[in-house]
Design goal:
Keywords: DNA-binding, Transcription, Transcription regulation. With 334 residues, the protein is an alpha/beta fold. It has 16 helices and eleven strands. It has two domains: 194 residues, Rossmann fold (3-Layer(aba) Sandwich); 129 residues, Orthogonal Bundle (Arc Repressor Mutant, subunit A). The radius of gyration is 22 Å and the shape is globular.
Amino acid sequence: MLRRRVVFLLFEDIEIVDLAGPLDVFGYADRWLQINGRLNEPGYEIVLVGLRAGPIKTAGGMEIVAPQGFGDELGEIDTLVVPGSPWIERACAEPLLIDWLQKTAPRVRRLVSVCTGAFLLARAGLLENRFVTTHWMYCDRLATLHPSLRIDRDRIFVRDGHVYTSGGITAGIDLALSLVEEDLGREAPRFIAGLMVVFLRRPGGQNQFSIFLQSEAPNRPDIRELQAYILANPAEDHSVERLAARLNMSPRNFARHFQAEAGMTPAKFVEKARVETARCKLEQTHLLLEAIAAETGFGTPERMQRAFQRLLNVGPQDYRARFQSTAIRGRTPP
């Protein structure tokens, strides 16, 4: 069987899930080809390479072994994957690593970063003026260090030409499933997602986590539960009166406590939750704007348009044109 060589870059303090998640996706894809007798199609050969061959300590303290070092001949590379690290600045300060990336990246078909791995690609000058993403907690730092980058803080992953960047940690699995879909079609990632017990297409972007975590009520479990309910049920009536009634509070008292805990009004939290849900549907479905507006609680496309302009500075139609999944775009609407 032919092989697409997928090279994972290893370095000290690497985040193990950034490596193991995507690696398993490609490994299961290779197994799927064999199970289905598609032996004439290119599978995947996984290669781990480090600064030098030998053990490498991960961020969690586990040691993994890089069978090959930078001085070894790797042959033709199809996809180069650069995982992240909680202490990515240490890797960015390693000149041999940056030099290897600069020399290797131009000869790969796909260049991929997971989580804070985008910092390494940016440090090597490989992301200039590109649309990218990274873990939502690190977006501000990436923007400060590399102002030419066009950072989408909320996408699970972003493709710009042959360069792919993913959001935080497990988002690397989402990106790897998408790469397998590009190569093998939809059935392979569907099988792999089921095997790994993950979403084939995650319902929402990083924003669903950043909205909740950045505005999570630290001292009120009842308000935290209410926020989670809003995120899970954006189409319901979430007027201040209804929300206050759920907590047996007066509207005025509820609004005051919510603002103090979440740092935003109940109405603003609801609007952000609805926009995030609508974004997901625009990216992953052929639903008409009227249907999306109804399903996400906006009621009308006009109200959804105004909310998108307020929060994203782009309308829903333009957002779909820019970010709809290539797999969805190529599929005939039902």
